């Protein structure tokens, strides 16, 4: 007998995007983040990284099991920043979904769309959780996005969806007019900024979505009490945020174990974590009113597994 008598499904980016609408994905990723901070609910070893120094690339293997969501999957992701100059995505990936009872492979999913959407959804979940305890009052909500690549675009869209801000200000070191035009045509109130300082001035939510290895965001530019989703710099030597800024804030990890190992922003600034964002979602950890908060996300297999399972169950409802 062979498991391949029930052949594995291939699930395309188009199919994934049709399922993973923000109203469905943000609650699912919120549940995944909460599970990560619940004893026994998630098995998720810190990812294995293969460094290809010759091509300045990294291959990562990310397995994860999320019991409450019946999700078992592995993502294999390559990060090759030099691809940008070749007109290729800097991050490419596949996700293999397995049955949780038997381990039998169920589906292979295009991973780039999952990575794009689940990362932005995690930042959205974190933003909503923190704002329950610590929401700046008075001025209208302005969102800033630093970086205009895949994550910058997805963060602009999801922040617009959940916060309905007055403005979404975007900065990218090479300009961002084409992204701003695209977002405007979708109804996002996007504007292009020529400096980080202009983009973040007065912003209540800041999203750092760059491939920077040196800090782009500095303490004096950030409004006290703002919330920062820091998505880049998942490499012990890289930083997106100045150390003084990180030390001044309350910091919540997607997963403490991986952030303490991988997040240069934490490691190089010598900062300590308040805890995991799942604890804020559960309400067992409460950000202090008026403090600047940081959601430090390095990315987790649990998010990929839950997103993949959601897509599979939606497309093949009778197959589990
Ligand atoms: N936390 C998570 O779960 C995830 C994190 N990431 C990280 O998020 C970041 C953005 O990823 P993508 O949008 O997919 O990449 P991308 O290649 O699509 O976009 C990168 C952006 O960063 C800018 N950039 C490149 N070098 C820079 C520098 N030295 N200083 C300032 N800006 C610079 C580019 O101009 C571009 O706007 C990367 O660091 C990536 O590794 C990506 C996926 C998941
Ligand atoms: O979790 C993820 O997919 C990634 N984290 C950093 C680069 C990609």
UniProtKB/TrEMBL annotation:
Q: State which Enzyme Commission number(s) the record gives.
A: 1.5.1.1, 1.5.1.25
Catalysed reactions, semicolon-separated? (S)-cystathionine ketimine + NADPH + 2 H(+) = (3R,5S)-2,3,5,6,7-pentahydro-1,4-thiazepine-3,5-dicarboxylate + NADP(+); (3R)-1,4-thiomorpholine-3-carboxylate + NADP(+) = 3,4-dehydrothiomorpholine-3-carboxylate + NADPH + 2 H(+); L-pipecolate + NAD(+) = Delta(1)-piperideine-2-carboxylate + NADH + H(+); (S)-cystathionine ketimine + NADH + 2 H(+) = (3R,5S)-2,3,5,6,7-pentahydro-1,4-thiazepine-3,5-dicarboxylate + NAD(+)
**GO annotations of cellular component type:** cytoplasm
Q: Tell me, what is one Gene Ontology molecular-function annotation carried by this entry?
A: thiomorpholine-carboxylate dehydrogenase activity
Annotated family: Belongs to the ornithine cyclodeaminase/mu-crystallin family.
Subunit and interaction comment:
Homodimer. Binds the thyroid hormone triiodothyronine (T3); T3 binding inhibits enzymatic activity.
Protein name as it appears in the record: Ketimine reductase mu-crystallin
Q: Which organism is it from?
A: Hirondellea gigas
Q: What is the lineage of its organism?
A: Eukaryota, Metazoa, Ecdysozoa, Arthropoda, Crustacea
């Amino acid at each position: 007998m062979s498991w391949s008598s029930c052949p594995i499904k291939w699930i395309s980016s188009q199919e994934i995007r049709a399922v993973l609408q923000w109203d469905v994905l943000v609650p699912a990723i919120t549940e995944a983040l909460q599970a990560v901070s619940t004893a026994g609910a998630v098995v998720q070893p810190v990812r294995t990284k293969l460094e290809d120094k010759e091509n300045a690339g990294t291959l990562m293997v990310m397995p994860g099991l999320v019991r409450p969501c019946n999700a078992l999957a592995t993502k294999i992701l390559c990060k090759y920043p030099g691809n940008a100059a070749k007109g290729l995505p800097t991050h490419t990936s596949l996700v293999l979904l397995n049955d949780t009872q038997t381990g039998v492979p169920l589906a292979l999913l295009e991973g780039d769309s999952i990575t794009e959407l689940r990362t932005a959804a995690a930042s959205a979940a974190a933003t909503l959780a923190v704002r329950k305890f610590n929401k700046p009052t008075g001025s209208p909500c302005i969102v800033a996005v630093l970086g205009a690549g895949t994550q910058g675009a997805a963060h602009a869209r999801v922040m617009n969806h959940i916060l309905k801000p007055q403005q979404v200000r975007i900065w990218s070191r090479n300009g961002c007019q084409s992204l701003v035009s695209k977002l405007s045509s979708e109804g996002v109130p996007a504007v292009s900024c020529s400096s980080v300082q202009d983009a973040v001035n007065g912003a209540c939510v800041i999203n750092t979505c760059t491939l920077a290895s040196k800090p782009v965001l500095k303490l004096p530019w950030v409004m006290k009490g703002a919330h920062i989703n820091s998505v880049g710099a998942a490499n012990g030597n890289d930083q997106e945020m100045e150390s003084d800024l990180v030390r001044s804030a309350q910091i919540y990890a997607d997963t403490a174990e991986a952030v303490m190992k991988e997040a240069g922003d934490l490691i190089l600034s010598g900062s300590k974590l308040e805890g995991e964002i799942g604890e804020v979602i559960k309400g067992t950890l409460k950000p202090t009113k008026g403090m600047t908060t940081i959601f430090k996300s390095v990315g987790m297999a649990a998010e990929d597994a839950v997103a993949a399972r959601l897509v599979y169950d939606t497309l093949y409802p009778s197959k589990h």
